[in-house]
């Protein structure tokens, strides 16, 4: 049995705690957080502590805490023979270099408190300093998800940037689209099916091949028609992205 | 019985022809296209012609043709008492002003030949010059879709621009995300669940409220970490969008 201590009590910690509870061969024996209040929801289910001195011996320590706190909290762990992992997408494995056995256990998904996430379909990116620990993390990950990938720190850094493009920036474009609709009292829900279809399409074909629109076609009449409707900032964004699409697709034609 | 003549033989014409075939109270009696070759797939199912002189009398003419051709083709229709509609998102109803009874029948979705689309969930935006014709178009649209909206030309123009933001531009961001992954041999499929989740989220909450990421948080460390990994053009795009997110969310904080 691999005993696990989770450090952290945020969204990721909560989701992992729940998922680990049914994982064969693993058992969460303690949850730590520096703020005692946020441990309350764990109290009835597992041993809790807000004191790093009281951390129990375990085979695996999972640091599900803010990026900036990982190195500092890890430094205070006394069990130097255990496997220590963090769950961050943007922090390298080397931040844990004081530990011979170190790794990363990164679920690539946006977690929010109010929305249930089915971890089964969440990709887990794992990395460890030696092959035996990769096997352990893989076993744990496969217990809770169908999508497990071995990803090194450099690759994970790229994934993290790419995620900003396909999620954070995409959501910003949704925001602009919604604003354009709102101004003319057009229900944004008219665009929902197109949004879903556009997303689903790139799970089946390359985004490069899925590109359509006036930018790709270089349809100057429609582009002018669109620009004339936009505010200054939106115009800049529209021109910038249209130019980028034309540069990308022009190159390859 | 409302007899329909479809003018055009592209993706939209094909999808509409199929959907109209089961619409109660309507019947497609002819399909026209200027290129006879593209009419072949219709030959066994309906009367076809490549000659505008041979267009049959009908109650409804549906122009599912390129934006630039709408006015010219419409001008050659002899039946001035019929209802004449086009299917374009970016062309006003007034391009059909020679017809007392004019309208728009615009399905807001990306159609491609190789991919089946369930029209039931495709929003249809309808507009007509008089209330009786709105009723006719609404009846036709409700026969084939569960989502029918009365949208005037100005609103439709906004929808068309907004669609570029939430679909064409979004797809471009997917393309950049895929390129970043490809460079480091990271499978793009790791990002598929995040892409779907990000899209589905804005069908349930406002995109403004769904915004997350280092730009929104103004996490300078992560932003620098990301910029350092990007190529010149990607850097510009990243900085531009991060700035836009901060301007938008800063204003409202």
Describe this structure in words.
The structure is a homodimer of 253-residue chains. The first copy, chain A, has helices at 11-20, 70-75, 131-144, 153-183, 192-201, 207-210, 214-217, 220-227, 232-252; strands at residues 2-7, 26-32, 47-49, 60-63, 83-86, 102-107, 124-128, 148-150. Chain A contains nine helices and eight strands. In chain A, helix 2 links the parallel strand 4 and strand 5. The first copy, chain A, has an eight-stranded mixed sheet. The mean pLDDT of chain A is 94. The first copy, chain A, has 253 residues and is α/β, with parallel strands linked by helices. At the A-B interface, helix 4, helix 5, helix 6, helix 7 and helix 8 of A face helix 4, helix 5, helix 6, helix 7 and helix 8 of B.
What distinguishing features does this structure have?
homodimer; 253 residues; 8-stranded mixed β-sheet
Broad shape of chain A: elongated
Whole-number mean pLDDT of chain A: 94
Distance between the termini of chain A: 58 Å
Number of strands of chain A: 8
Quaternary structure state of the chains depicted: homodimer
Largest sheet of chain A: 8 strands, mixed
Percent of residues in helices of chain A = 40-55%
Question: Element order, helices and strands of chain A?
Answer: EHEEEHEEEHEHHHHHH
Largest interface: A-B, 88 and 88 residues
Number of helices of chain A: 9
Strand order of the largest sheet of chain A: 3-2-1-4-5-6-7-8
List segments of chain A where confidence is low: pLDDT < 50 over at least 5 consecutive residues: none
Q: What class would the helix/strand composition of chain A place it in?
A: alpha/beta
In what range is the share of β-strand residues of chain A? 15-25%
Radius of gyration computed on alpha carbons of chain A: 23 Å
């Amino acid at each position: 049995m691999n005993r696990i201590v989770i450090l952290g009590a945020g969204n990721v910690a909560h989701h992992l705690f729940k998922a680990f509870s049914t994982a064969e061969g693993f058992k969460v024996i303690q949850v730590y957080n520096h703020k005692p209040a946020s441990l309350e929801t764990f109290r009835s289910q597992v041993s809790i502590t807000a004191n790093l001195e009281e951390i129990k011996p375990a085979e695996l320590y999972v640091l599900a805490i803010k990026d900036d706190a990982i190195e500092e909290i890890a430094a205070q762990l006394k069990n130097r023979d255990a496997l220590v992992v963090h769950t961050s997408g943007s922090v390298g494995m080397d931040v844990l270099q004081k530990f011979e056995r170190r790794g990363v256990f990164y679920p690539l998904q946006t977690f929010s408190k109010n929305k249930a996430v089915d971890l089964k379909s969440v990709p887990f990116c794992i990395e460890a300093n030696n092959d035996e620990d990769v096997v352990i993390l893989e076993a744990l990950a496969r217990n809770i998800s169908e999508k497990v990938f071995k990803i090194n720190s450099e690759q994970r850094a790229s994934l993290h940037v790419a995620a900003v493009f396909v999620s954070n920036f995409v959501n910003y474009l949704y925001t602009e689209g919604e604003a354009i609709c709102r101004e003319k009292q057009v229900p944004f829900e008219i665009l929902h099916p197109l949004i879903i279809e556009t997303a689903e399409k790139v799970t089946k074909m390359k985004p490069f091949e899925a590109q359509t629109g006036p930018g790709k076609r270089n349809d100057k009449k429609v582009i002018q028609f669109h620009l004339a409707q936009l505010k200054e900032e939106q115009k800049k964004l529209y021109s910038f992205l249209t130019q980028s699409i034309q540069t990308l697709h022009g190159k390859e034609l």
